[in-house]
Write a structure and sequence with these properties.
five-stranded mixed β-sheet; 24% helix; disordered N terminus
């Protein structure tokens, strides 16, 4: 996927999402062993993201709260080096879930404008969603076909809130969202 960066927001720094919206829960799974690699990739457990993207997430959090939900961030900013590690550790059939690191654009996580999120209830407990993080199967698609009406409802609630807040999603992962103005952000 070649992306033309129209106007880079070079000076917009990364912020900790919890400084912008403390009610968003954070569990950066690549800073733990609870990921497909079974090892820590990131040093930081903070969810870092561009400030304008964090503000969009705060809006999504507000919309979801009205429906009895909240956001949990699984992944935010990812350095180019960490993305390369993940790409190299992925099996051949899993690589399609990671942006090609050598095409000049790399992962939009490395631009600070992409997040992996899930839903929690207002008590902070996970709600039922299509899959866990790092599930490299068709079940992880945004087009949930599992037949569980609760999962379907939860996924639609997440997608609606994220879309109304200025994000879009890609078909491979239900939990991967990108700021709709991603072209404004260059790799950090």
């Amino acid at each position: 996927m070649g992306i033309f960066i129209k106007k880079a927001r070079e000076n917009e720094s990364l912020v900790n999402i919890q400084e912008i919206c403390p009610s968003i829960k954070v569990e950066i799974l690549y800073s733990t062993r609870k990921n497909f690699c079974k090892k820590k990739i990131y040093k930081s457990k903070k969810a870092l993201i561009r400030k304008a993207v964090a503000q969009k997430l705060a809006l999504a959090q507000s919309l979801l709260k009205n429906e009895g939900f909240g956001l949990k961030i699984w992944d935010g900013y990812r350095s180019k080096e960490d993305h390369l590690k993940l790409y190299n550790l992925a099996k051949e059939n899993e690589k399609k879930f990671f942006a090609e690191p050598f095409n000049g654009t790399g992962s939009l996580h490395s631009h600070g404008c992409a997040v992996d999120v899930t839903l929690i209830d207002l008590k902070g407990k996970n709600v039922r969603m299509p899959t866990d993080f790092d599930t490299f199967t068709d079940e992880a698609s945004v087009d949930y076909k599992g037949g569980d009406k609760i999962v379907e409802y939860n996924l639609i609630a997440l997608q609606r809130a994220m879309q109304e807040s200025g994000f879009f999603w890609l078909t491979l992962n239900w939990h991967y969202f990108v700021a709709n103005n991603f072209e404004e952000y260059s790799i950090i």
